[in-house]
């Protein structure tokens, strides 16, 4: 009986010392990326990876290589695919697809934005060796 009480006490001490995960961070911080116009009414993308600028200047096709409609339609496709992968962290790398992308198809984001977003997806394919098609 004495050993039984000691075992229960030891078990309770281990359980009481365990920490509970704090889910407040995941509730309060949405994992989505929404694009807002700047003061001039233009949209822009800032990628915090130095290799993206190198990719854009040396590997990517020139901006006028494709039409605005081409960039827009491909970006809608890539965004849907990206968001699907974001919703399946057990299948796809949750560090790579950490945020979902909100892109309104009725908004005219402009050629520069569509070009940079298109090349962001191409950059992800190039750098991380994943296929987004």
From TrEMBL:
Record Pfam families: DUF6146 (PF19643)
Keyword terms of this UniProt record: Signal
Domain of life where this protein originates: Bacteria
Signal peptide: 1-21
Record's protein name: Lipoprotein
